Each structure stands twice: as structure tokens, then as C-alpha cells.
Amino acid sequence: MLLLLAILIGVLYGSAVYLLLRRNIFKLVLGLIFLGHATNLLLFVASGLTRGYPAFIRNVAGETRQMADPLPQALILTAIVIGLGVTAFALVMVYRFYSVTQTVDLDELSENE
Amino acid sequence: MTMMLLTAPILLPLLFMVVLILTRKRLLFQQVFSLAASLTLTFVSAWLLITVRQEGIATLQMGMWPAPYGITLVADLLSGIMLVTTSFVALVVMVYSPGFIDRERQTAGYYPLVFGLLMGVNGAFITGDIFNMYVWYEVMLTSSFVLIALGGSAEQLRGSVKYVTISFVASIFFVSAIGIMYGQAGTLNMADLASKMRGWEEMPYMNGALMLFFIAFSVKSALFPFFFWLPASYHTPPVAITALFAGTLTKVGIYTLFRFYSLFVVQDVLFWKVFLLVVAGLTMSVGVLMAASQFDIRKILSFHIISQVGYMVMGLAVFTTHAVAAAIYFTVHNMLSKTNTFLAGGLVYQRSGSYDLKYLGGLYKARPLLALLFFIPAMSLAGIPPLPGFFGKFLLIRGGFLSGDYVITAVAILVGLFTLFSMVKIWNEAYWKKQPDDCPPAGKVGRPALAATTLLAVAVILLGLFAGPVMEVAHEASLQLTNPEIYIRAVLDH
Q1: A59: domain range?
Q2: pTM for this entry
Q3: Residue of A nearest to B131 (CA)
Q4: CA 20 to 30 Å from B424, out of B155, B302, B360, B415?
């Protein structure tokens, strides 16, 4: 499981960087989204995986059970929400950019300067 | 009491923002209210600084969760100093904005966004938890995204595409570092983490995580080699927004670097010192050399932000009490003087309709006051006594000499000369040379903008005249930074 996730994170980071380096501005946003997802998974994996246990235990005296660490999950939830907000903004920005300049090519962008 | 004082720098801007969003279309109310609001914020921050100075580091455990489990708010002297300077800069920008930013932008949410930005900045200054700091960074960045794109001109959109992309990538570095750090240490409370790191023999992934943090913060504060986004985006929005960014945003990165370096660099200290010194030297010199080749006032000033940030990092890297104190003083000076030069540049634009030095000229003859208002902060940045830039640079260079870091000190002195050169360049071109024939027609300079710039110029002069007392506070703040045990105990023992 760990290996699988590690490979997945690597692939996501790789595709994200590839997309970020493209000239098309919509692919740039896609790259940002991928980058966000890869990092969320990294947070998840880096803090240790616990399979099959809930992230909370009942408060009963004497009962000791294994539990999953709830903190990384909370962190990822926060990061997802923030990522969603930034993505929404980036999409609107890119759309505005397109409607103002009539191009999605980042190279033309620098020529206009 | 502590509870109210410590949460106020975060909660007050939130409250102001809500009020301003609800009254978005009432322009006059917005202007007056945000003026009063930023004034209140300045007083509250000053009060917090005084309290911290008298009673030591103030801490607050949110939700009554004991220290390493919940989120802790911490204000030490450095936080206090940064809070006061930030809210003062915001106050000045609020005075400046009404006559300068067009009506459309003002009613489209300019004022609420400024307070959103301030909430994020203040939150980053007083949080004691790394993840919480990331959240405040995002609050601040999201507000700045909208501010930089507000108005939606083609130039602004070009700038904001770059700004948003690079900021997001930097945030990704930040979060990845947090993940790795948490996986290693099992805690995100900064004081707890620092005390754990001091107890360990070996920390295999720590330098990697710290390097990721360093990349994140050096992107935000525009250090070498991560500075290219700044001059490519900062000049696009109206100059009041640029001034606010120059005075607050990049300095949050610097604050975080100070905090992290003081708390977390316990292993391989020599490597980090040399590394930061090299980065500082390159940042200083590359910034100032690139500024020399520009002809747009805003671009020259933007490149100077980079060069000046190098000085702050130099003080941090030397990391003696003297050097850090000098760096703190220099940061305060820079926040004020830098904002002031941008505001003065904005006045030039209002008067002459251009930022391009080729089309400017004769302003000294036409409007001596405008010339004076630029002259004061410019000479301060260049380091002419008795202005604060001189004391800042002098003390930094003295700190460098005392600790025996001669190379960086030599670089700092040289860069000082180049700074003088490019300030004199703006001065010669815009103010002294004869007015060119194809100069755009003269416009009217708004009274509030003039008043704001004067206010800031007076503050710059005062900071120079009262360098002694300010330096004393900076010195105490530096003592807290160079002895991180004080910070750790203040958080964990409460």
C-alpha cells in the first residue's frame, strides 16, 4: 500500500511539473490541481498509515485500542479546502485572462509585454 | 486581558472585513471606516507590543487545549514589532487610497480585501503552530491574489497569472515540509518541535524538511534565486496596492525565516549559516544590479525590495545578538521607507501620468514638495545619515565585522553604493533633468495621497532620530530570538 501510494504521488508530481511547464494556460491550472493532490497524499503518507482503524476511540476506562492518527486527516481536509478555493480563483482568473487577451498561450503573453 | 489582546490582531480585521463587505457600495463610509479601523488596529498592536515588553512573551492556548495539542498563539517582541509596523503601513495606505484608487476598484471590494490581507499577515505573526501558520499564509495570499487582479486589466492579469502560480507552488513546498516534519516529530507546535529537536541525537529527514521550508519562505520573500516573480507582478496593480504588498507581504516571509531559523536550526548550524550568507549576498547584489538597468520607477523599486531583503537575511545568518537586532531594525526601516518610495512614485504618476523615467522630468522645479517626499525615503534606503537606513546598514555591517564575516560585509557595503546609484538615477531623471517635450500633461495630486506620503516620511525621519530607543527594543527582541529557550518555555510551561 505504501509503495503504491509512493508511486502514485511520484506520478502526480511528475505530471504536475510537466503540465506546469506547458505553454497552455489551462494546462497550467491543471498542473496546479495535480500538485495540490500530490501534496495532500504526501501529507497522508508521511505521517504514517494505519489501516482498518478509526481515527477516534471511545473514552472507556481500561480499553486500549489501536487508532489512526486523526491529525493528518484534519490537515488534509484543511489543505483540500484551501486548494479548492485557490483552484476556483485560478480558473476564474484564467477565464478572464482568455476573454481579455484572446489567447491561452503563455508565450504570446510574454511577447506582449 | 491577554486573551483579548492576543486575539485582537486577528479578530478585529475579520470583524472590519465583514462590516466592509456588507457596506460594499457605500464608498464614503468605506473610506472613513477603514481609516478608523486601521487606526484602531495600530493602537491595539502598539498596546500588545508594550504589554509584551513589560510582561514577557504572551501566550494563549486556544480552546484551553494544553500546549502541544491545541493551537497556541504566541506574541514575543519580534511579533509585536512586526504587528505595529504592519498596521502602521496599512493605516498610511488607507489614507493614501481614496484619492488614488479608482472608484470602480474601491467599490469592488478593495477595502474588505485589505483587511483580509491584514488578518492573514497578523495571524502569521502571532501563531505558534506551523500548520496554523500555513493557513494564515493562505488567508493572506488569497486576499493578495484578488487584490493584484482587482480591476482585471490585461497587464494585471498577466502579472497575477505569474503571481498566483508561483505562490501556489511555494505553498505546496510549505505543506510538503509540514507533512515530513510531522511524520518525523509527531508534533506541529513550534515550541514543542523545537524542544524535541534539541533532545535528539540524529534527525535524518530534518534538513530536507527545513530546506523545503526555506524554499517556500524564500519564494515569498523573494530571495535569490526565487525572486523573478516579484518584479514581474508587483508593478501591475495600482501603486497603493504595490506599496501595501512591498511593506507587508514580503516581510512575512522574512519574519517566518527569523522564527524558524531561531527555533529549528540546531543541527548543521555551520552549513545553514554559510548557505544563508551566500543566499543573502547573491540576493543583495543581483537585486541591486538588475534595478540599475530598469527605467520604470515601479520596477526599479521592485528590484530594490529584493536587494534589501538580502540585508535582513544577512543579519539573520550572522546570528549574533547585535546582527539580529540590526536586522530587525532594518526590517522596520525597510517596511516604512519602501512603502514610502512607492507612495512617492505614485504621486509622480498622478502629477505626470507616467512611471517611465524617459517621459518624466522637471518635477523638482514644478513641485518641490513631491521631490522632498521622494528624497527622504530614497536617501534612507541608500543609507545616508541621519535617516534610519544608515543606522540599519551601519549596525548590520558592524555586526558582520564583529563576528568576522568579512566577505558578506564587503558585499553589503558595495551594494549600499549601488543602491545610492539607482536612487540617484530616479532622482536625476524624474526630478532634476529638464522636462522632456513629449511629456504627458500635468495632472492633479490628491490631498489625501500627499498627506499619507508626508505622514510616512515623518515616520521615517522619526525612526532615524529615535534610533536609540527603537534599537533597544530590537535588541531585546533579538535576545529572545537568539535564546530560543525563552520562547519554548513561555509556550510549554503555561
Answers
A1: 2-111
A2: 0.92
A3: A75
A4: B155
Which value does ipTM take for this structure? Answer: 0.91
**Structural domain boundaries, residue B288:** 2-492
Residues B192 and A95: their CA atoms lie apart, in Å, by 45
Domain total of chain A: 1
The residues of B whose Cβ lies within 8 A of any Cβ of A are 131, 135, 138, 142, 145-146, 149, 152-154, 157-158, 160-161, 164-165, 168-169, 171-172, 175-176, 178-180, 182-183, 188
- What stretches in chain B show pLDDT beneath 50? none
State the total domains in chain B: 1
Contact assignment for B168 to A35 by CB distance below 8 Å: yes
Verify whether the Cβ–Cβ distance A28 to B180 is below 8 Å. no
pLDDT (tens place) for every residue of chain A, 113 residues total = 889 999 999 999 999 999 999 888 889 999 999 999 999 999 888 877 777 777 776 666 666 667 778 888 889 999 999 999 999 999 999 998 888 888 888 777 664 44
Contacts with B328 (C-beta within 8 Å, 6 or more apart), sequence order: B78, B81, B258, B315, B474, B477, B478
Query: Distance between CA atoms of B459 and B454, rounded to whole angstroms?
Result: 9
Q: Given CB atoms, is A53 within the 8 Å cutoff of chain B?
A: no
Q: Cis peptide leading into B225, omega within 30 of 0? A: yes
CATH of the domain at A20: 1.10.287
